[in-house]
Amino acid sequence: MSDETRAGTGQTLSTELVDDVLVVTIDKPGEAVNTLSTNLLGEFEGVFLRVNEDVLIKGVVLISGKPDGFIAGADIEQFLEITTAAEAERVSRLGQDLLNRMEKLRVPVVAAIHGACLGGGLETALACRYRICTDHPKTSLALPEVQLGLIPGMGGTQRLPRRVGLQAALDMILTGRAIRAKKALQMGLVDEMVHPAILREIAIDRARGLGDGTRKASRPSNHGATSLLLEHNPIGRGVVFKKARASVMEKTHGHYPAPLAALEAVQAGYSRGVEGGLREESRLFGEMAVTDVSHQLVFLFFASNSLKKDPGVDAPAPPPRPIKKLAVMGAGFMGAGIASIAVQQGTLVRLKDTDTARIGKGFAAIAGVLKERFTRRQITRQQFDDYLSLVGGTTDYSGFGSADLVIEAVFEDIALKHKVLEEVEPVINDSTIYASNTSTIPIGRIAEVAQRPDRVLGMHFFSPVHRMPLLEVIVTPMTAPEATVSAVAYGKKLGKTVIVVNDGPGFYTTRTLSAYMNEAGRLLDEGASIESIDTALVDFGFPVGPITLLDEVGIDVGGKVGLVLAEAFGPRMAPSDAMRRVVSTGRTGRKGGKGFYRYDESGTKGQVDDSIYELIGGQRREIPAQEIVQRCVLAMVNEAVRCLEEGILRSARDGDIGAVFGIGFPPFRGGPFRYVDSVGAHRIVEQLEELNARFQPRFEPAQLLIEMARARRSFY
Ligand code: NAI
């Protein structure tokens, strides 16, 4: 017997009675994913009422109507309307109450999870009596709130530790890490894992079994002897909390309050019981919701989402050309990296280099990336083999004739870039897109020798390609919109966040990063120590300091970039004496085992190499950290604003995303443009003018900043 009550228009929940089990389907109309918002409360009330009134109902199944997502979390759009901590706390209490009632419902509720089960979605599942997930790769469970500067606000900080143990729960809550199906089963986060085809059927069966008592709800498992020892007594738990706090502080340098708040909420649950813990969770959720950090992280979330929908050209955008075959020139560091992510999207790749030994090295590098994924169980042995079989090597241009896209990643040398472009053009199709991965050379200069400059653009990947989230697509006035949208669409397919910028030396990312690195070099000239510069900027929030970064990128590479930019921008970007001297010794940084720092054979960084100071010359003296930060950061910010003013950037949004995702600008500060807004353009101009009085003309404020300061305008 089945009685269906299709909800009316606008409803998210619909119910169907399958014999004695009520199947509740959550399917937010008109949206790709399900999210939770306060207007769902009433709908859930309706369901609860019905269950309580209809004694024939023995169990409930909660399942999603979306093809590959359970619940993606709270509705962030609605969340943005919240302006006070008290209001956020109230919303959290409402969510908690709802789930408390679901947990205590007259009959058991079974969560049937397929696809993303995130944030409030997982908190809902945790309040169910039983959880089943599918064994599909799209199924993943996480509490990612800290990534938005928040903490779980619907009981997650209380129910998760009780379900999977304190240490496993803290790992999830403090990092936002996603857990795949198999792991979720192993750790007791779900009770069962099934094939998607039978999810609903099994869930109904389990709800019935739990309802009529033929099946028992699983108890949270004890998680090994060590964790038992640690977690089941206050002293042991004290140790766990202390370690967790220390690890958070080490990772965040105290810049992110949310993980610490989450820790507090979890801890309150142990010292004051669940009720007290829930109250503390709501209170802290409210507090976090109005932090500046949370506003910046939520902004980045929205900005990267809006980029996903941006075709890369202003309307009307032509349809992108699908990229099925890719030719990569240069099997080096970047070429192999690009190939390694392309094969994982099923792209057939032809890798070209000057000799077979180099191609062999490229293959080994690709295999290395895939092996890491295999070892982490992110891909199967079969996938590993399949992906690797998609790459073919060549020392001539065979196979290039059928490529949809060529990516050139040969040495950073304009003569070589011209030579390979001239060689390739006659063997590729008229419609093939030609992209250079240059990090500095203007695309227009590369395209000077092209027969079809409308097919030429830049696709600037960052290293290591498989980890770095950004792709900067560079277009010239000649680039055809169809080539742009195709490169953008393919970049997104490769999993990248893509910004499109107009051509110019260093485009956006290299140019702004260079302004910042160059200032670090000037500070060395003036006597600052290497450690003091690196420490000051790490304390500001960069993942590594500029001098360490230079060692990573390669001092030789930095030297070449510096020359191109100095030629283009004159005294503002003229290399420091320190840099010029170190470059001239041939030290290359980590890859050569010798840089500003010492490296052991495995490439692990050691202490500063003191012999550098003899090379640089001059006395070391203390320059205050505040001055170091101000000079390096403002050099970057001012250059970023110039990029917007000159039309290199299409928007401030792109500039913020590019800086955070590409060159390590601290995410909790939102990006250079958000930084200007938080400090105030007039304050930034004042600071720049003060610095410019000392270091003319490096800090001359960008015209746009001056105008904004005058009009008291902000970028957002
Ligand atoms: P690499 O030195 O690791 O690789 C360059 C490869 O090009 C070598 O294997 C070389 O044999 C090959 N090559 C030289 N002439 C060739 C030809 N005629 N045909 C085919 N292959 C040829 O250099 P890497 O680091 O991969 O850089 C490549 C490009 O990517 C450069 O333009 C660089 O500026 C850019 N880039 C580098 C980044 C990095 O962090 N290494 C980041 C972003 C861009």
Oligomer class: single chain
Quickly count the domains.
3
Bound molecules: 1,4-dihydronicotinamide adenine dinucleotide
* Uncertain spans: 1-8
- CATH A-level architecture of the largest domain: Alpha-Beta Complex
Q: Give the percentage of residues in beta strands.
A: 5-15%
Give a brief description:
By secondary structure, the protein is α/β, with parallel strands linked by helices. It is built from 29 helices and 21 strands. The strands form 4 sheets. Strands 14-13-12-15-16-17-18-19 form an 8-stranded mixed sheet, with helices on both faces. Strands 1-2-3-4-6-8-11 form a 7-stranded mixed sheet, sandwiched between helices.
Provide structural commentary.
This protein is α/β, with parallel strands linked by helices and 716 residues long. It has three domains: 2-290, 2-enoyl-CoA Hydratase, Chain A, domain 1 (Alpha-Beta Complex), CATH 3.90.226; 325-505, NAD(P)-binding Rossmann-like Domain (Rossmann fold, 3-Layer(aba) Sandwich), CATH 3.40.50.720; 510-647 and 650-711, N-(1-d-carboxylethyl)-l-norvaline Dehydrogenase, domain 2 (Orthogonal Bundle), CATH 1.10.1040. The protein is 50% helix and 13% strand. The protein has 29 helices and 21 strands. The strands form four sheets. Strands 14-13-12-15-16-17-18-19 form an eight-stranded mixed sheet, sandwiched between helices. Strand 18, helix 18 (481-493) and strand 19 form a beta-alpha-beta unit. Helix 1 (40-53) packs parallel to helix 3. The N and C termini lie far apart (57 Å). Residues 1-8 have low confidence and may be disordered. The structure holds 1,4-dihydronicotinamide adenine dinucleotide. 1,4-dihydronicotinamide adenine dinucleotide binds next to helix 13 and helix 16.
